[in-house]
Structure to design on (156 residues):
Protein backbone atom coordinates (compact mmCIF):
# COMPACT_ATOMS: atom_id res chain seq x y z
CA UNK A 1 0.00 0.00 0.00
CA UNK A 2 1.22 3.49 -0.84
CA UNK A 3 0.66 6.25 1.75
CA UNK A 4 3.35 8.86 1.18
CA UNK A 5 5.88 10.06 -1.34
CA UNK A 6 9.53 9.25 -0.81
CA UNK A 7 11.57 12.31 0.24
CA UNK A 8 13.93 13.86 -2.23
CA UNK A 9 17.67 13.91 -1.57
CA UNK A 10 17.38 17.62 -0.71
CA UNK A 11 14.81 16.87 2.00
CA UNK A 12 17.02 14.29 3.77
CA UNK A 13 19.24 15.44 6.67
CA UNK A 14 22.93 15.81 5.94
CA UNK A 15 25.57 13.56 7.46
CA UNK A 16 26.63 16.45 9.71
CA UNK A 17 23.08 16.85 11.06
CA UNK A 18 22.82 13.10 11.71
CA UNK A 19 26.13 13.09 13.60
CA UNK A 20 25.07 16.15 15.67
CA UNK A 21 21.73 14.52 16.50
CA UNK A 22 23.44 11.29 17.51
CA UNK A 23 25.94 13.11 19.75
CA UNK A 24 23.13 15.18 21.32
CA UNK A 25 21.18 11.98 22.06
CA UNK A 26 24.30 10.34 23.53
CA UNK A 27 24.77 13.32 25.88
CA UNK A 28 21.08 13.69 26.82
CA UNK A 29 20.49 10.00 27.62
CA UNK A 30 22.73 9.89 30.73
CA UNK A 31 21.51 13.34 31.80
CA UNK A 32 17.88 12.15 31.70
CA UNK A 33 18.87 8.92 33.42
CA UNK A 34 20.53 10.78 36.32
CA UNK A 35 17.94 13.56 36.69
CA UNK A 36 14.64 11.83 35.91
CA UNK A 37 14.73 8.03 35.61
CA UNK A 38 16.86 7.09 38.65
CA UNK A 39 15.01 9.41 41.08
CA UNK A 40 11.52 8.50 39.87
CA UNK A 41 12.06 4.75 39.53
CA UNK A 42 14.63 3.86 42.21
CA UNK A 43 14.78 6.92 44.55
CA UNK A 44 18.45 7.39 43.59
CA UNK A 45 19.23 11.09 43.13
CA UNK A 46 22.90 11.73 42.26
CA UNK A 47 22.29 15.31 41.04
CA UNK A 48 19.65 16.59 43.49
CA UNK A 49 17.34 17.47 40.58
CA UNK A 50 14.98 14.61 41.44
CA UNK A 51 14.37 16.10 44.91
CA UNK A 52 13.67 19.53 43.41
CA UNK A 53 11.21 18.04 40.92
CA UNK A 54 9.55 15.76 43.49
CA UNK A 55 10.67 12.63 41.67
CA UNK A 56 12.72 11.14 44.51
CA UNK A 57 9.65 10.97 46.75
CA UNK A 58 7.75 9.26 43.94
CA UNK A 59 10.59 6.71 43.63
CA UNK A 60 10.54 6.06 47.40
CA UNK A 61 6.78 5.46 47.34
CA UNK A 62 7.16 3.14 44.37
CA UNK A 63 9.88 1.11 46.11
CA UNK A 64 7.84 0.93 49.33
CA UNK A 65 4.77 -0.34 47.45
CA UNK A 66 6.84 -2.97 45.65
CA UNK A 67 8.35 -4.13 48.96
CA UNK A 68 4.92 -4.33 50.61
CA UNK A 69 3.53 -6.32 47.68
CA UNK A 70 6.43 -8.78 48.01
CA UNK A 71 5.77 -9.17 51.73
CA UNK A 72 2.04 -9.69 51.10
CA UNK A 73 2.79 -12.52 48.70
CA UNK A 74 5.12 -14.27 51.13
CA UNK A 75 2.70 -13.79 54.01
CA UNK A 76 -0.29 -15.08 52.10
CA UNK A 77 1.73 -18.01 50.78
CA UNK A 78 2.80 -18.80 54.32
CA UNK A 79 -0.74 -19.85 55.15
CA UNK A 80 -1.73 -20.78 51.62
CA UNK A 81 -1.20 -24.54 51.49
CA UNK A 82 -2.57 -27.10 53.87
CA UNK A 83 -2.24 -30.76 52.94
CA UNK A 84 -3.85 -33.83 54.39
CA UNK A 85 -2.95 -37.28 53.15
CA UNK A 86 -3.30 -40.96 53.93
CA UNK A 87 -0.37 -42.94 52.60
CA UNK A 88 0.67 -46.54 52.09
CA UNK A 89 4.26 -47.84 52.61
CA UNK A 90 5.27 -47.23 48.97
CA UNK A 91 3.95 -43.66 48.71
CA UNK A 92 6.33 -40.72 48.32
CA UNK A 93 5.66 -37.14 49.43
CA UNK A 94 7.84 -34.09 48.76
CA UNK A 95 7.13 -30.42 49.55
CA UNK A 96 9.54 -27.96 47.94
CA UNK A 97 10.13 -24.47 46.51
CA UNK A 98 12.39 -22.67 44.05
CA UNK A 99 13.09 -19.24 42.53
CA UNK A 100 16.10 -17.48 40.96
CA UNK A 101 18.57 -20.23 41.86
CA UNK A 102 17.19 -20.65 45.40
CA UNK A 103 15.67 -23.99 46.27
CA UNK A 104 14.35 -25.55 49.44
CA UNK A 105 12.98 -28.91 50.44
CA UNK A 106 10.49 -28.42 53.25
CA UNK A 107 9.69 -32.05 53.88
CA UNK A 108 10.19 -35.44 52.27
CA UNK A 109 8.53 -38.63 53.33
CA UNK A 110 7.87 -42.18 52.33
CA UNK A 111 5.14 -44.47 53.60
CA UNK A 112 3.77 -41.92 56.06
CA UNK A 113 0.36 -43.34 57.10
CA UNK A 114 -1.19 -39.90 57.63
CA UNK A 115 0.03 -36.33 57.71
CA UNK A 116 -1.36 -32.83 57.93
CA UNK A 117 0.27 -29.42 57.99
CA UNK A 118 0.82 -25.99 56.50
CA UNK A 119 3.50 -24.73 54.15
CA UNK A 120 5.25 -21.56 55.26
CA UNK A 121 7.04 -20.17 52.22
CA UNK A 122 10.71 -19.35 52.86
CA UNK A 123 10.73 -16.93 49.90
CA UNK A 124 8.45 -15.76 47.10
CA UNK A 125 8.55 -18.13 44.16
CA UNK A 126 7.31 -21.53 43.05
CA UNK A 127 6.22 -23.80 45.88
CA UNK A 128 4.85 -27.23 45.30
CA UNK A 129 3.68 -30.45 46.76
CA UNK A 130 4.35 -33.82 45.15
CA UNK A 131 2.67 -37.14 45.90
CA UNK A 132 3.32 -40.48 44.19
CA UNK A 133 1.31 -43.65 44.83
CA UNK A 134 3.61 -46.56 43.91
CA UNK A 135 1.12 -49.35 44.52
CA UNK A 136 -2.49 -50.36 43.83
CA UNK A 137 -3.89 -49.15 47.17
CA UNK A 138 -6.51 -46.42 46.93
CA UNK A 139 -5.24 -43.15 48.39
CA UNK A 140 -7.25 -40.04 49.22
CA UNK A 141 -5.40 -36.77 49.03
CA UNK A 142 -7.04 -33.51 50.10
CA UNK A 143 -5.22 -30.29 49.31
CA UNK A 144 -6.74 -27.03 50.53
CA UNK A 145 -5.33 -23.74 49.30
CA UNK A 146 -6.18 -20.13 49.97
CA UNK A 147 -4.63 -16.71 49.87
CA UNK A 148 -2.90 -14.85 47.09
CA UNK A 149 -1.11 -17.01 44.56
CA UNK A 150 -0.33 -16.55 40.90
CA UNK A 151 -1.01 -19.98 39.47
CA UNK A 152 -2.15 -23.43 40.53
CA UNK A 153 -1.08 -26.39 38.39
CA UNK A 154 -2.08 -30.01 38.71
CA UNK A 155 0.33 -32.31 36.93
CA UNK A 156 -0.64 -35.92 36.49
Amino acid sequence: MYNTDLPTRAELPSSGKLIRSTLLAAVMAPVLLATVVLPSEYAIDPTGAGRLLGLTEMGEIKLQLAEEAELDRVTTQAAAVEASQTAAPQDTVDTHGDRNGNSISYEKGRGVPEDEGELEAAFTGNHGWFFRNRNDNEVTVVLRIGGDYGELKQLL
